[in-house]
TrEMBL record:
Protein name: diguanylate cyclase
A GO MF label: diguanylate cyclase activity
Enzyme Commission numbers on file: 2.7.7.65
Signal peptide: none
PROSITE patterns assigned: GGDEF, PAC, PAS
Ranges for domain PAC: 96-149
First-tier enzyme category under EC: transferase
Length: 323
């Protein structure tokens, strides 16, 4: 018995001094170990939490289950509702893994934690405790999020890039057509932009693209609208829950904003100002393209018609309108 006690005491001391933040719950959910690394992570001392079910206070501002509690309750199905990511690879054995943003109430601030929890059972297979370990991977998560933003953001203008545009178009098409909502698309091109670039240089061209992006986004005022740099001097806007007439109104508003900005384009002639050609298409009661590709092609053809009609105008698949 003495040897067993010595081994048990050694195991407890070992766990208490692990560099990985770790706590252990008994089969009722009460804390029996709260190691020093866990104290440093949460700012809560072992003496304040051992023997209680207050371990959640180290990580959340409101009472809710920690991953170890879900192991005790054999509640793997609740992970998706409580955690940002379910990483469990062996839930059948009661070993759960997840990731979550946690607000640490005592030390303050948010940390993104990778969490693992698994059962400890006796010789008869009965649960006697659950171990939860935590790794602070906030730096890695923030770096990942920045990379994800960069992957979908045009680096020059700061608005969405072609990749994000394509993803959002597909998503909104499925959402709109599923419930019969209208949606519209604007394709726009800066008129005589090559002449602008050739005359004033590429740095001026870059500044011009940034300014146009700012003007365009200012005229699309809803959170659900997406403005994207489609490529070169071409921009595109997705307008959910908007019919053709509504999209034409937005297009004219954008044209007016660019006209009022009065950006000189000396490459296009003396006194010339920058203008936009805009093509508009929609999925609504009178217009029923069969796919997002068809919607995009219709807007592109309308843009081409606007260019052929003398530029600085708005064109739908059916008619050319004064800007």
């Amino acid at each position: 018995m003495r040897a067993i006690r010595q081994h048990r005491n050694f195991a407890v001391r070992l766990m208490e001094h692990l560099v990985v933040p770790t706590f252990v719950l008994d089969e009722t959910g009460r804390v029996i170990i709260w190691n020093r690394s866990c104290e440093r992570l949460t700012g809560i001392s072992a003496g304040d939490v051992i023997g209680t079910k207050d371990h959640w206070q180290g990580f959340y501002t409101e009472e809710r289950p920690c991953l170890a509690d879900l192991v005790i309750g054999n509640a793997a199905e609740e992970i998706a509702d409580l955690y940002s990511v379910d990483c469990s690879s062996d839930p059948a054995r009661g070993i759960f893994s997840a990731e979550n943003w946690c607000h640490l109430p005592v030390v303050g601030g948010q940390r993104y934690l990778a969490i693992d929890a698994g059962p400890i059972k006796d010789e008869d297979g009965r649960l006697i405790a659950v171990v939860e370990t935590l790794r602070d991977i906030t730096v890695q998560k923030m770096a990942q999020e920045k990379l994800e933003v960069l992957a979908r953001q045009d680096p020059l203008t700061g608005i969405a890039n072609r990749r994000m545009f394509d993803e959002y178009l597909e998503t909104e098409w499925l959402a709109s057509t599923a419930v019969g909502h209208s949606m519209a698309l604007l394709m726009m091109d800066i008129d005589h932009f090559k002449a602008y670039n050739d005359t004033l240089g590429h740095l001026a061209g870059d500044s011009c693209l940034q300014r146009i992006a700012h003007l365009v986004t200012n005229e699309t005022r809803r959170d659900c609208d997406m403005c994207a740099r489609y490529g070169g001097e071409e921009f595109a806007i997705i307008l959910p829950r908007t019919n053709l007439a509504g999209a034409v109104a937005v297009a004219k508003r954008i044209s007016m904003a660019v006209a009022l900005a009065a950006i000189p384009n000396p490459g296009a002639g003396r006194g010339a100002k920058l203008t936009l050609s805009i093509g508009v298409s929609a999925f609504d009661g009178d217009n029923r393209p069969n796919s997002p590709t068809d919607l995009l092609n219709a807007a592109d053809l309308a843009l081409y018609a606007a260019k052929q009609s003398g530029r600085a105008c708005v064109c739908t698949p059916h008619q050319t309108l004064a800007a």
